[in-house]
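User: Can you help me understand a structure? I only have the sequence.
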Amino acid sequence: MSKGERISQFVDALDEAPGTISPNDIARNKYYRAYFRCWNAQQYYEAHDVLEHLWLRTDSDDWQFFKGLIQAAGAFVHLQKQFEHPSHPKHGRRLAPAVRLFRLAEKNLEPFAPERHGFDIEKFLELLRRNASAVVDSDYKVNPWSPARAPKL
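Assistant: Let's start by predicting it. Here is the structure, written out as tokens:
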């Protein structure tokens, strides 16, 4: 089974309203909605994967928007892994890569502010900036993420 088929099965299992949704109606697209469901379940890697699936198959001006959301999820993957394994040789060094992804996500999402496809970009950018600043201000020693403080979208 290919990665695309696995992701499709995963999204279908999450989808609460199966049926045909117009590819032009991004806010109702099951992959777009699955991104937020995964995010809120602290499944950032899966959020990245399901939206990447949509991003790679969308021929529109939304590619940069999707890329920014994917980068944000990637940043939270880094924070989550570092939180879970702070002394691990690889995972313990994930704070700087998280900040880099936060900055890339900001750059890609800013043109779509204040809102895109039913999503409050301004509020999300503030979340990204706040987390990046917390890491930078601590000289890359403090991880602002924890399961109890995980952001919901």
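Now, to help you interpret it: The first strand starts at residue 115 and ends at 116. The two ends are 31 Å apart (CA to CA). Let me know which part you'd like to focus on.
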